[in-house]
Write a structure and sequence with these properties.
Layout (H helix, E strand, L loop, with lengths): L3 E8 L8 E8 L4 E5 L6 H9 L6 E6 L2 E2 L5 H11 E4 L11 H11 L1 H5 L6 H11 L15 H13 L5 E5 L7 H18 L2 E6 L10 E4 H4 L1 H4 L1
Parallel strand pairs: 3-8, 3-9, 6-7, 7-8
Antiparallel strand pairs: 1-2, 1-4, 4-5
Helix pairs in contact: 3-6, 6-7
Length: 227
């Protein structure tokens, strides 16, 4: 079963003015996909549909075995929280929580994530992942006291704890220099491999493509853009 399958999908905010029209898109379980395209090509809209934040006007959006077009908004939220990890460009860490509390949040909110931890306790799992990302010395610090690079690693840890089946990274390296981009990508791919998560990495920077086994141009698959 594919991790992501879209067929005959149309999304628009206004009638007869579609922003996205995709005949077919298939991403297999375990794939590492680099999704790219210029501003306005439909990247953000596509991510919203895959994550279940947006609801397609027409077509099938099947993600991790469920057709999101047939689910209510609250059911899509539960599916996303239990089965997907999301790394935002701006990290979206909760500023009044510690590093430990930010990482643990998904497991506290979603029982499925908690059931999939590999350590015997949640604290043990947090320490295992934090050590992997060189964050074990910062667990009790507020995230606001961390550097940008450290905050990015917290975002990775929060996304991958509880072994989500799909990880989406939305332009997370756009503010980093080349060396830090490479370090971030290496860590992200390694922890996704360990969790056996499908990875969709979104960027406009084509120089990062070589780290991924498959490349998808949103401009090419979005029929609205190509016409």
């Amino acid at each position: 079963m594919p991790a992501v399958y879209l067929q005959n999908v149309i999304f628009s905010y206004e009638r007869n003015a579609p922003l996205l029209q995709i005949d077919e898109l298939l991403i297999d379980e375990g794939e590492r996909v680099f999704l790219y395209g210029p501003s306005g090509s439909g990247k953000t809209t596509l991510l919203g549909l895959v994550a279940g934040v947006l609801h397609a006007n027409k077509g099938e959006v099947r993600v991790l075995g469920k057709d999101l077009t047939r689910l209510s908004s609250s059911a899509r939220d539960r599916h996303r929280g239990a089965e997907m990890g999301y790394i935002f460009q701006s990290f979206n860490l909760i500023p009044y929580l510690s590093v430990r509390e930010n990482i643990a949040l998904s497991c506290h909110v979603h029982a499925k994530r908690m059931k999939r931890i590999t350590a015997s306790t949640l604290d043990g799992e947090i320490l295992r992942i934090a050590s992997r990302l060189d964050l074990d010395g910062f667990l009790n610090k507020p995230v606001t006291k961390l550097s940008t690079g450290q905050q990015q690693r917290v975002a990775i840890a929060r996304a991958v704890i509880g072994a989500p089946r799909l990880v989406i990274a939305d332009e997370p390296t756009s503010s980093l220099d080349r060396d830090r981009q490479e370090s971030f990508l290496r860590l992200l791919i390694e922890v996704c491999n360990e969790a056996r998560s499908t990875l969709i990495f979104v960027s406009h920077d084509s120089s990062l493509m070589s780290r991924f086994e498959r490349h998808i141009s949103v401009s090419e698959i979005n029929q609205v853009v190509s016409c």
